[in-house]
Amino acid sequence: MTGMKVTPWEVSGHIDYEKLIKQFGTKHLTPQLLKKMEKEAGELHFMLTRKVFFSHRDLDWLFDKLDKGEKFVLYTGRGPSGDTHIGHILPWIFCKWLQDKFNTELYFQMTDDEKFLHDDKLSQEQTHNFAYENALDVIALGFDPEKTFIFTNYDYGKTMYKIATRVAKMTTFSTAKAVFGFENSTNIGMTFFPAMQAAPCFLPSELKKKKIPVLIPAAIDQDPYWRITRDVAEKLGYYKPAAIHNRFLPGLQGPDSKMSASKPDTAIFTTDNPKDARRKIMKSFSGGAPSLEEHRKHGGNPNVDTACQYLFNVFEDDDDRIKEIFDSYKKGSMSSGEVKTMLADKVEKFLKDHQQKREHAKKKLDKFMLKD
Ligand code: TYM
Fold first, then answer.
1. Following DSSP, what letter does each residue of 242-263 receive, concatenated?
2. What integer pLDDT is reported at residue 262 of this predicted model?
3. In terms of CB atoms within 10 Å, which of 137, 160, 240, 365 comes out highest?
């Protein structure tokens, strides 16, 4: 597929997920595996049945371990370069579901170091502040304070560095270059950083002094990290981390558009004024025909319509309802304006609620944060 680029720092072009599975060497989430998961969890999240999460590494192994009485923990994270958008929280919503269903711990890494190293314009103080701002969004989603451990690399650096240098020692520059595309002009902080993102895969085992299986829910852009982590895991005496990968929620400008913190109209941010979010949604890319009359006659394409996609991926959990919306949109009996209004109502409600919880989260921060 032309122009597709998926790295941890850049996602562009039309994303061909089948090709990514082949390129990255991951596996499809098969119906058998989903059945197994349904048996373990008691039900399936809509992000699984709708293939929002579509690929994995070693999930079958993880469930075998679980059957043998070895409980897994979750690991995920955020690169704090700005405000949190709805794409970021998509895997976190799924993490929350996994935590509830499997009653499991979550380790959450804020890579304030990565974003300082990567972005010329960001200072250490800024990325560190964003880490704490973004942590409020994580807490607001309702994770269990007894079982959720959030840390920034700067504030938990002593613990992280010790594990990271062990990973780094086993990883050659040649491997890192092949996996991440580093060049001679890449600063050496960035070439070391993958070891810092690998480290939390082994943190639970270090803290508990025994091997603990880890599952990482994240979009597929983060997979290169797990490839190098899995290469060194057994040599260092740990299990390889398992991963489950989600697709990307598109930007508001259409299927292959990107969300960007520097362009506020490309995404809904958790800190947006709800009225402003409504305005953004009402002018988002639509998959309908150019005029309402034509749309009524020929129908539209829900697979490219932004509002339909946001409902499908995040905001409408009822399967019957989503089918009804897609069918009516295809037929033309439901207009783009109607779908946008439906999404805007849901997003407005979500933001009001989330922002309240975010305020309350400020008092709970200490309970969640791990520091040296
Ligand atoms: P970051 O901040 O780029 O992204 C945070 C999480 O959001 C996912 N994501 C998306 N998911 C759906 N649709 C989108 N449009 C979208 N954009 C981003 C990312 O895959 C990620 O799960 N280096 C990492 C931080 C990190 C991390 C981790 C992430 C550290 N340890 C472990 C996942 C798992 C980063 O910059 O993520």
1. EEEEEPPPPPTT-TT---BTTB
2. 82
3. 160
Highest mean pLDDT among 167-176, 254-263, 288-297: 167-176
Q: Which has the closest alpha carbon to 269: 71, 86, 4, 25?
A: 86
* pTM score, whole prediction: 0.97
- Output the ligand 1 site: residues, CB below 6 A: 8, 75-79, 87-88, 90-91, 109, 111, 114, 197, 216, 218-219, 221-222, 246, 248-249, 259
The residue to mutate among 78, 85, 92, 229, having the most atoms of ligand 1 within 8 angstroms of its beta carbon, is 78
Query: For a pocket test of ligand 1, which of 76, 84, 88, 150 has the largest count of ligand atoms closer than 8 A to its C-beta?
Result: 88
**Which residues, at least 6 apart from 70, have a Cβ–Cβ distance to it below 8 Å?**
212, 213
Amino acid, res. 337: G
> Kind of pairing, strands 27-28 and 53-57?
antiparallel
- Give, for 65, the enclosing helix (H) or strand (E): helix 59-67
Closest residue to atom 7 of ligand 1, CA basis: 88
Phi, psi of 209 (to 5 degrees): 55, 35
Element (H, E) at 57: strand 53-57
